[in-house]
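Issue 218. Parser rejects a valid record. Input:
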Amino acid sequence: MSWTVLIDPETIEIQGQFLTTGASGVNWPGVQCTCEDPTVVMATRDDSGEIVLLEDPAKVTQKTQAQWASVRTQQRELLYKSDWTCSVTDYGVPDRELWVQYRAALRDVTKQSDPFAIEWPVAPV
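Output the parser choked on:
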């Protein structure tokens, strides 16, 4: 997926972005650059004075932290929904050991390296 980013040539500020559909012939004011993720780029001038897009480390960090927060929220929700399997001692939970393993795998989700490609464990049926 590719995005076109519109940049003000005087201020070098990003004015907007839109998903590139492959259609050509559209003449937008300002400078246009393409990228894969407009939420993590900044516009700057290279040594020759051309306006280019670079990945902004601060924006990448912010996006990654937000994704980890989302992962932790989903993790907590799944742990909460499966609390009944381990917290009630007088109720015979079928496949209790499978539930214990599932909940352990849920707790380990945040040990994965990429919050955008989480492999979620599947709850026992």
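Fixed in the parser; the record now loads. DSSP finds three helices and five strands in the chain.
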